[in-house]
TrEMBL record:
Residues 1-172 form the FAD-binding PCMH-type domain. It comes from Streptomyces sirii. Pfam families: FAD_binding_5. This is FAD binding domain-containing protein.
Length: 283
């Protein structure tokens, strides 16, 4: 779609004082999908030269905001980490063509802050931290679960930029389980639930997205029983946080999130029991 209110596109490598009507341009798959009457100038991030995905010395993984879904998927295939399959599962949760995969960015998905954003699901479940750059050059870090505050809402200030998301090495080593459901055969995610088991202390975490207006992450020191998980989920997610749109009523989204959460819990619990059997502790 032509944005007929935009009168200028500038290279973001050249620092330009922020002014009303400015907007960051990443992949542009959302930006050019509908009218943006508030925009007058776009600051293009496509030539920033940030490495799409890189492993840091401490073993963590830094994903640039400009990393495309195709780049992330390709890198995940060679990623030596227990959580590597989760990357492809979340990439496949997009209702998108190969053209979108090659243009849409991880940063754009997070900054749109839509409930069904699968990059929000991925990075929230793996304890991601956002690096934000302000116009005055200062930086701050915000956990992904706190970055998105509601449907279409995030903590970015005026002119603030999402630079990257970093996933810690310990989270990358976690065992994971993934469940996703759509109301329609080719519909967007109506509920997406991810479970992780910490490789060091065996703690269990459950992340719920798509059915809720923002990501919710529940943590348990030990894998919970079914009733414990259900009670915690009901207590953590308030009634007003269940998302209401044409892809599913709040009651249905809540029901499916609870159902998928139990499937995730059972899958990871079964893996634990299988591991114990292999060690010869169960007969």
């Amino acid at each position: 779609m032509d944005l007929n209110t935009v009168v200028e596109v500038r290279d973001a490598r050249r620092h330009t004082p922020w002014r009303p009507g400015d907007g960051w341009l990443g992949g542009g798959t959302y930006l050019f999908s509908e009218p943006q009457p508030h925009l007058r100038r776009l600051l293009d991030l496509s030539r920033m030269g940030w490495p799409p995905v890189q492993r840091l010395p401490d073993g963590s993984l830094e994903i640039a905001a400009t990393c495309t879904i195709a780049q992330l998927s390709g890198r995940a295939r060679t990623l030596d980490a227990a959580a590597a399959p989760l990357f492809e599962q979340c990439c496949r949760a997009f209702l998108a063509s190969f053209k979108i995969w090659n243009m849409a960015t991880v940063g754009g998905n997070l900054c749109n802050a839509l409930p069904a954003g699968p990059m929000i699901s991925l990075t929230a479940a793996l304890e991601g931290t956002c690096l934000l750059l302000a116009q005055d050059g200062s930086t701050r870090r915000v956990h992904v679960v706190d970055f998105v505050t509601g449907a279409g809402r995030k903590v970015l200030g005026e002119g603030e930029l999402l630079r990257s998301v970093t996933l810690p090495a310990r989270a990358l080593a976690a065992r994971t389980a993934f469940r996703q459901v759509s109301l329609y055969g080719l519909g967007r995610s109506a509920a997406l639930v991810i479970g992780t088991v910490d490789p060091v202390d065996g703690s269990f975490a459950l992340t719920v997205t798509a059915a809720t207006v923002r990501p919710f992450r529940l943590w348990f020191p030990l894998p919970p029983r079914a009733a414990e998980l259900r009670t915690a989920l009901a207590r953590t997610v308030p009634d007003a946080a269940w998302f209401d749109d044409i892809h599913g009523l709040p009651a249905w989204g809540r029901h499916m999130a609870f159902r998928l959460a139990e499937e995730v819990r059972r899958e990871l619990a079964d893996e634990d029991r299988a591991g114990v059997r292999e060690e010869g502790y169960l007969r």
